Amino acid sequence: MIKKSVQQRAKKLRAQIDDLRYRYHVLNDPEVTDAMYQGLMDELRKIEEQHPSLVTADSPTQRVAGIPAQGFHKIKHTVPQWSFNDAFDELDLKAWEDRIVKILEKKYGSKPKDLSYTAELKIDGLHMVLTYADGQLMSGATRGDGKVGENVTQNIKTIETVPLTLKKKIDIVVEGEVWMDRKHFAALNRQREKLGEPLFANPRNASAGTIRQLDPRVVAARKLSLTAYDISAGAIPSTQAEELEQLKQLGFLTDDYWKVCKNTDDMLAVYHDWEKRRDSQPFWIDGLVIKVNQRQYQDDLGYTGKAPRWAIALKFAAEQGTTTIKDIYVQVGRTGALTPVALMEPVRLAGTTVTHATLHNFDEIARLDVRIGDTVVVEKAGDIIPKVVRVLEKMRSGNEKKVRAPKKCPICKSEVRRDEIGDKGRKGAGLYCTNKKCYSQELRRLGHVVSKNAFNIDGLGKKIIEQLVNEGLVKNAADFFTLTKGDIEPMERFAEKSAENLIEAIAASKNISLARFVYALGIPHVGEETAIRLATHFGTMRAIMNADCEKLEDVHDVGSRVAASIVEYFENKENQYLVEDLFKSGVEIKKQEAHKKNKALSGKTFVLTGTLLSMTRDDAKAKIRSNGGDVAGSVSKNTDFVIAGENAGSKLGKARELGVVILTEKQFLKIV
User: Fold this and answer.
1) CA 6 – CA 10 distance, rounded (Å)
2) Which of 65, 264, 421, 435 is a good FRET partner for 97, with 20 to 30 A between their CA atoms?
């Protein structure tokens, strides 16, 4: 029997240590010395060692587990994890704000007078998703592909700025950035250098590499931090500003420097201020994240296929360096676009060695007057894509060679056509190979067909596809599905077992959803989300193929340009034959994607709000779509039903205001 006084002492120690952690790591206001803090930890650890039954999941002694993991399990996010679109200058930012205002003006008749924005520091780290139930940390997961991430909960628990228990007993999903400060990053690389291990190129890589360590003790030793910046499920306040305040009140470390802005001028003022003092913080900053402040307007604006319309990452000027251009060659993409690429002498930028940089198109080459042999300034735009920004003309020797736009495709020697691409008028026009049989286009189209979000055929990489084409085994996408083990086994890199595995992977991919099938075709301007909407709206491949522009424009978010592209694609006889050949080769559309007119929810539009307990939002959306319904991101007069989960947000109030039917999760499950 454990004495009551011992139980009370353990409980008091846990509460006191957690409060001291909060004051030290979140408020930056240490109340005791490190030695005193450690003394309290030692006392609690001793009590728990003597009385193991007193150990609780949220005890500060449990931040570092003693046993290394065997690996990381996958975890499905309850809400999609989006990334932000980028803006690199004032023009990009202004164009983004103009788009937002235009959408809101269309909905409300004029620009809302209370429209405002938050400007937050964009910490250069690793995105993390934390799930709490009744105030207790249940899981920590990486973003992954936005739908499924890695469960790194044990490692997350080692981070002192992550509260194991919130200051309120609520269910909530929090997003944040894991980062390593300058001091610990430098120390880690010094240690790795002494051990002869490769150095981390930048703190983002160090954070990502650390959080995926199998031994939590290694993670704890590297002293990561987490800054929280978003509540994606649970009790979500009506503004982003209130959300940041709530996160701090719950016990999270937050960005203390965020500002509310009224317009682009305000945003740029914050941007230029931080551009000058970005090195003043212990963490690396690569820009600002600008968000529409009001949650209602965020809901109105919704999402594209990859990012929220209501937010944008305004990046700082990229790191620059000088190098020499050795050559300029041309890549041909799956749509036939000719992209000139500079081959350069190696240059170090943002911790990585760069040897190639995009030149976008030949109008850009003419604008910059880039020549082979030139000394140029190159930068990593957004610290990701290397590009040439200007030529150092004074460094010219006179031996530099001009590059002219090709009149023929460099791969197949066919004629090229010029298409205006209208990138704010700054990058001119693109050149396209007119030969759809072009070897480079064929390879890239075939690669798209087997990609993860299309047929998802495991083991069919770029080199294998090239080999299959060169051997004459694959001429179009349908040929993948008629391959045999006998075709594959004699090829280089294959043996009996590997050939067998590939054939099994191909066979497994033959049963495919209509949305994935449409996406796999590679129709210009038709991405994943558009493919889903087409599949949901029309229900069959034949209906999509026969639709005219008018019918296509009835589909949510399909405009005239996309509609014309779809019609043009299916008017081409070769594309019609390809679809027929795919079906003849054994490809089948999954039965649940039958025509929506035969479905119980045909023509009904649903909006989801709050956290669902029995399924993820993606699961709920799939059920709606498979039953013929549509899913929208915001509540409007066109909404038929709002499904309200736990801690429903502002969409619930909007639904009541408009008289939209509100369903509980249990009621929803009865109709699907």
Assistant:
1) 6
2) 421
Domain boundary among 381, 400, 433: 433
Active-site pick, 12, 46, 74, 122: 122
The reply to whether 120 sits in an annotated binding site is yes
Q: Are 152 and 73 within 8 A, CB to CB?
A: no
Domain of residue 20, CATH code: 1.10.287.610
Q: 190 and 137, same structural domain?
A: yes
Which residues constitute the domain of residue 630?
599-671
Instruction: Count other C-beta atoms under 10 Å from residue 241's C-beta.
Output: 18
Residues 281 and 428 in one domain: no
Q: Are 579 and 545 in contact (CB under 8 A)?
A: yes
Same domain? For 170 and 297 the reply is yes
Residue-wise pLDDT for 225-247, tens only, equals: 999 999 988 778 899 999 999 99
| Same structural domain, 165 and 268 | yes
- What would the pLDDT profile of 484-532 be if each residue is shown by its tens digit? 999 999 998 888 888 999 999 999 999 999 999 999 999 988 988 789 8
pTM: 0.52
User: Same domain for 310 and 218?
Assistant: yes
Task: Give the mean model confidence (pLDDT) for residues 98-125.
Answer: 93
**C-beta contacts of 274-281 below 8 A and 24+ residues apart:** 274/121, 274/316, 275/316, 275/317, 278/316, 281/121
Which is nearest to 127 in space by CA: 24, 218, 230, 216? Answer: 230
Same domain, 258 and 289: yes
315 is in an annotated binding site: yes
Note whether 298 and 244 are same-domain residues: yes
CA-to-CA dists, residue 457 to 240, 452, 509, 511, 641, angstroms: 41, 7, 6, 12, 37
Closest CA to 504 of 532, 484, 489: 484
Annotation marks residue 427 as catalytic? no
Q: 412 labelled as ligand-binding?
A: yes
